[in-house]
């Protein structure tokens, strides 16, 4: 577990180590099957996999990147890409949302397991069944890492989490735990998921009222709460930017007074939260059909 957080070279060596990832996944599957999701070894295994999924999109060998890109249908060879999967082109990014990964292997081995639906379902199972905060945080964090990029892999993982594995109810529960880091990681994961336009209506329906509920009434008082507030505002921004329906949902959940209060504090310590709330207000105001409702 310590070695897996030693940086890019350490992660690379561990991903390449024959049988290591397979063994970790095997152990966690056994623990879940035996109804023992809270043991320390399971926590260690999940924390290792969390670390090995960090920067995965950028650090994967070229052969994996090529195998994924060779089978993509919609993107012309003229579009420029950066890194293994990542791309900075907005047009490309929009197309990617309809571009699935190649057919999943039924028996993934080694590094292939890190983004496979089997492991995604394991993380969601641990989020639902484990009461150990580090295990919950590592499972959420691994999913956050896997959904962090803009290539086909993060979008495919996001669709598995939301639509194929019905993961939103488990993530929603984590928004209401008392442990601040678990809550922060759950919101960060939702922020990544909410960038995928095809999933926004599902996410809004399932968790938008909860996100409004956990927004602080006034400017947050600690760094971690401030970071969580920023992520909530940008998640709500993603969900409401192009959807008048979702903006109305936010309004009916009494989110507007909280967002206005946060946006009006411009002290240096909380300027990020204030800025994020202001960006969200700007998006909400762009829905002209809601202006009379806002004024009321």
From TrEMBL:
GO terms for biological process: cell-cell adhesion; desmosome organization; heart development; intermediate filament bundle assembly; protein localization to plasma membrane. GO terms for cellular component: adherens junction; cytoplasm; intercalated disc; nucleus; plasma membrane. Residues 94-107 have a biased composition (Basic and acidic residues). Its main location: other. InterPro entries: ARM-like, ARM-type_fold, Armadillo, Plakophilin/d_Catenin. The keyword tRNA-binding does not apply. This is Plakophilin-2. It comes from Aptenodytes patagonicus (King penguin).
């Amino acid at each position: 577990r310590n070695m897996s957080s030693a940086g890019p070279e350490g992660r690379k060596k561990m991903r390449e180590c024959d049988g290591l990832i397979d063994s970790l996944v095997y152990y966690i599957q056994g623990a879940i099957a035996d109804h023992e999701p809270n043991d320390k070894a399971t926590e260690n295994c999940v924390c290792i996999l969390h670390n090995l999924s960090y920067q995965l999109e950028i650090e994967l060998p070229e052969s994996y990147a090529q195998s994924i890109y060779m089978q993509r249908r919609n993107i012309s060879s003229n579009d420029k890409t950066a890194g293994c999967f990542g791309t900075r082109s907005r047009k490309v990014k929009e197309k990617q949302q309809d571009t699935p990964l190649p057919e999943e292997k039924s028996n993934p081995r080694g590094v292939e397991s890190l983004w496979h639906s089997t492991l995604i379902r394991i993380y969601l199972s641990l989020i639902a069944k484990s009461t150990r905060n580090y295990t919950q945080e590592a499972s959420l964090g691994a999913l956050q890492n896997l959904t962090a990029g803009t290539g086909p892999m993060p979008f495919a993982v996001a669709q598995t989490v939301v639509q194929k594995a019905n993961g939103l109810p488990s993530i929603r529960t984590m928004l209401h735990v008392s442990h601040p880091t678990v809550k922060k990681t759950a919101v960060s994961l939702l922020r990544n998921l909410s960038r995928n336009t095809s999933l926004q209506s599902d996410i809004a329906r399932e968790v938008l009222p909860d996100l409004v509920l956990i927004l602080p009434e006034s400017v947050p008082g600690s760094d971690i709460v401030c970071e969580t507030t920023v992520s909530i505002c940008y998640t709500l921004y993603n969900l409401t930017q192009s959807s008048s329906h979702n903006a109305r949902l936010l309004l009916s959940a009494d989110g507007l007074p909280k967002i206005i209060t946060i946006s009006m504090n411009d002290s240096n310590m909380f300027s990020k939260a204030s800025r994020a709330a202001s960006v969200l207000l700007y998006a909400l105001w762009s829905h002209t059909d809601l202006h009379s409702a806002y004024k009321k």
